[in-house]
Design a protein that fits this description.
Layout: E1 4-9, H1 17-23, H2 29-33, H3 60-73, E2 77-86, E3 89-91, H4 94-102, E4 109-113, E5 118-119, E6 133-135, H5 142-156, E7 163-164, E8 167-172, H6 181-194, E9 201-207, E10 212-214, E11 220-222, H7 231-239, E12 244-248, H8 250-258, H9 260-271, E13 279-281, H10 282-286, E14 299-300, E15 302-303, H11 310-313, E16 319-321, H12 325-339, E17 348-351, E18 355-356, E19 361-362, H13 372-384
Parallel strand pairs: 1-2, 1-17, 2-4, 4-8, 8-9, 9-12, 12-14, 13-16, 15-17
Antiparallel strand pairs: 2-3, 5-6, 7-8, 10-11, 18-19
Helix pairs in contact: 3-13, 5-6, 8-9, 12-13
Length: 387
């Protein structure tokens, strides 16, 4: 069976009252994407979309075309970022709600709870600003957990919903930030059974390499990253009650490319506001993304087509140079080699992302490469497919 590539999907590209208030009327991700400036010779900025244009996700035609492009590339489905801030507060929910209500596009999906606080640092492009919270991620307790479950129950019951081992998939972006994660998982499992579901397949996201350790009370202490093994990092997520891990090897790849201590020093200098620019050769970095434990049956690695957060930071922030469809195809094939011995249901690869234009990680058609990113996925799947 071929790899199951699931693409993370950002539902940001439409105006909402909160962004109008924080950033000005009509603000979307495109606002700063088009303002990005090249920072060095040969730097491809701004990134300009091709076939889909500067789209608005309130338009069903856009969502249909996205699904068509993804299906033709061999992507199994979209994993929509889902924003639940507690006490019933959601943001950016309209595109997915319309997909659910309209039954269109007829394309598989699942949800990833992006459980993080929003601050003005995401889109603040001026130096010397003070970071302020825009909306805080809250975890009020069991009653809110129940309300949250009931809000997504119609999605879980939709025939398009992606399953693993027969259960609907639900991904948590940052398990270590959830103060009662085991209680939340147990509550949702009970509610799933009561509402006619066979359960829920919980996946916890994590970097495969961490520079801290966290105790049972949530307190973090600095630690030297282990680049030899991700066993403890992944087992920590599984011990919380998750069925599987979605591993993200970006920090691991960068440390092995730079050298661990050089990379840590650069990161520390940037934390103190020093202008330490960082560039990473794409191919030389992503070849280190996968840890030995990514071969575990219940660990699903992440592939990254490109990375350039210039639209968000307006400064050098770990720009990946030399990214191309050809290099991306090799990256995908390496990921497929990692998962080749897993059961068909577990040949899962998460792709970050379908449309994160503000971070420069997307596979939608652009002016520079056209359909190249999508063709890279198709090529890799065709090479991997075994009748």
């Amino acid at each position: 069976m071929k790899a199951r590539i699931i693409a993370l999907y950002l539902p940001q590209f439409h105006p909402i009252p909160e962004n109008d208030e924080w950033w000005g009327p009509g603000f979307t991700e495109w606002t700063n994407v088009v303002k990005a400036k090249p920072l060095f010779k040969g730097h491809n900025q701004p990134r300009i979309p091709a076939d889909l244009g500067f789209y608005d996700l309130r338009l069903p035609e856009t969502r249909e075309l996205q699904a068509k492009l993804a299906r033709e590339a061999g992507i199994e489905g979209f994993c929509y970022y889902h924003y639940w801030f507690g006490n019933g507060k959601q943001l950016l929910e309209r595109p997915f709600n319309e997909v659910l209500a309209s039954n269109k596009p007829d394309f598989p999906f699942c949800l990833c709870w992006a459980n993080h606080t929003w601050s003005n640092s995401t889109w603040q492009r001026k130096s010397g600003f003070s970071s302020n919270t825009l909306i805080e991620q809250l975890y009020p307790g069991k009653e809110d957990d129940i309300e949250h479950f009931m809000s997504v129950l119609p999605a879980f019951k939709d025939k398009r919903y992606i399953t693993i081992d027969g259960r609907p998939v639900f991904v948590l972006w940052e398990p270590r930030d959830h103060p009662h994660v085991q209680q939340w998982i147990n509550t949702w499992r009970e509610l799933a059974l009561k509402n006619g579901l066979p359960g829920i397949y919980f996946i916890g996201m994590t970097h495969s390499t961490l520079a801290f350790k966290q105790d049972n009370n949530g307190k973090r202490t600095r630690a030297i990253p282990n680049l030899e093994s991700s066993k403890d990092v992944f087992q920590d997520i599984l011990n919380m009650g998750f069925d599987a891990v979605n591993s993200y090897g970006k920090r691991r790849g960068e440390m092995l490319k730079d050298g661990k201590f050089v990379n840590l020093a650069k990161t520390a200098l940037r934390r103190f506001g020093l202008p330490v620019g960082r560039r990473f050769d794409y191919s030389k970095t992503v070849k280190h993304f996968f840890a030995p434990e990514d071969c575990w049956e219940n660990v699903y690695p992440t592939i990254l087509p490109q990375w350039d957060r210039t639209p968000r930071k307006a400064a050098w922030d770990g720009i990946y140079t030399g990214a191309s469809p050809k290099a991306f195809e090799q990256h995908i094939l390496q990921a497929m080699e990692v998962i080749k011995d897993k059961a068909p249901e577990h040949k899962v690869i998460f792709m970050k992302s379908w449309n994160e234009w503000g971070e420069g990680n997307y596979v939608e058609p652009d002016e520079e490469f056209g359909h190249g990113w999508l063709q890279a996925i198709r090529n890799a799947i065709d090479k991997d497919f075994q009748p």
